[in-house]
Amino acid sequence: MTCKIVIINPGIFRPGDAITGKIICIFEREERIRGIKCQFRGREKVHWNERRGKHTTHYHGQTDFVVANTDFMDEGTMRPGKYEYNFSYVLPPSDIPSSYQHQFGSITYFLHAYVDRPFAFDYKDDVALHVVSPIINHPTHQMRAVSLEVNKEVGTCCWPKEPSTMELRLERDNYVLGDVIYFKAIIRNTSDSEINSIAVQLSTTVQLTAYSPSTRHKTERILLAVAEGSGVAPGSTKIHKFSLKIPETAVITNFTRCTLFKQWCSLRVQALYPLFHSNMVAEVTIKLGDTIVRTEQIEHAVNSPSNSFVPVAEAPPVVYPPVPPSAPLANDRLAFIDDNNGTAEGPPPSYDDVVKGSY
User: Fold this and answer.
1) Residue 173 has pLDDT above 50, yes or no
2) Cα separation of 213 and 47, whole Å?
3) What is the pLDDT of residues 292-350, one digit of tens each?
4) Are 164 and 280 in contact (CB under 8 A)?
5) What is the distance between the alpha carbons of residues 139 and 124, in angstroms, rounded to a whole number?
6) What distance lies between CA 8 and its chain's CA centroid?
7) What does residue 252 show for φ and ψ, rounded to 5 degrees?
8) Alpha carbon 265 to chain centroid, angstroms
């Protein structure tokens, strides 16, 4: 007996796509079953070990953000033959994560079909699916300017000075791969120490979260671009203008609906003081996407009739011939299945034809 999943439209799936296929079950003898089922799952999981002394702790977590079940057959007896069951799962038009693989976790989509057998191992098959969900940013007119000011006291407890300040000004908070970030860093150095230089870093951070046996985070920072500015003399103010290009090859992942994965992009500017002083740091978070959506695309997604995973299953097909349990299994043409409507094509062969192998 076999149970196999066949995807009719294999490849990369995107939001709004339909995943269509069929479950093929072949029974070589009459068999009692509890059902024929198919499960569609979107699953995130993390796992890693941390060692402290002689003790090792295994942190892990797993969540299903997509759960869709289809029952093709209820409990009953299956006669020998080939059975095909069509299915279609429609992805929502937006707000789904992408497939993702990491050293300490993954985000996967998969189909799991099985024949539920009482008091025996199930017949089953699994197929992994690859989903790419772009991160779509808002239109330009919905973006906003960003301004952030930080200060730092550089002096002694006996002779305090007015704090030095650094202000960042970005023209917007929303970017896509390949964009150039134009911004200003206005630095006012009121201390007696010279600021040696200005260091700029654009990076993305991926955070993994495990909830068992306790909440634990693991982060990975990826540097995308860097820039440098000249120093600022004591008691002076300088305006630095920067242009930082976001690499088109940067890898960003859509983690929408995920609870174990998170990603953000940050612009970090440091005013570097001499070694015996701590640096003055300003950091802003920006939104980084694959593309900018137009207004009509947003309206279409909002007004879409479905924003959930919709399983669609067809009625059980007609299966030929009614072979007795003692008869050998005929070839693949036992089932006359029309993929369009699930009805039989032409008359079934006779029992004698099947036994003699003339069909």
Assistant:
1) yes
2) 11
3) 654 344 344 434 444 344 454 443 443 333 333 333 333 332 222 223 333 333 334 44
4) yes
5) 46
6) 23
7) -125, 145
8) 17
Note the pTM of the prediction, 2 decimals.
Answer: 0.75
Identity at 65, one-letter amino acid code: F
Local confidence band at 137 (pLDDT 50, 70, 90 cut-offs)? confident
Separation of alpha carbons 46 and 223, rounded Å: 23
Domains, the chain, in order of start with CATH, read 2-131 (2.60.40.640), 146-289 (2.60.40.640)
* SS3 labels along the chain: CEEEEEECCCCEECCCCEEEEEEEEEECCCEEECEEEEEEEEEEEEEEEEEECCEEEEEEEEEEEEEEEEEEECCEEECCEEEEEEEEEECCCCCCCCCEEECCEEEEEEEEEEEECCCCCCEEEEEEEEECCCCEECCHHHCCCEEEEEEECCCCCCCCCCCEEEEEEECCCEEECCCEEEEEEEEEECCCCCEEEEEEEEEEEEEEEECECCCEEEEEEEEEEEEEEEEECCCEEEEEEEEEECCCCCCCCCCCCCCCEEEEEEEEEEEECCCCCCCEEEEEEEEEECEECCHHHHHHHHCCCCCCCEEEECCCCCCCCCCCCCCCCCCHHHCCCCCCCCCCCCCCCCHHHHHHCCC
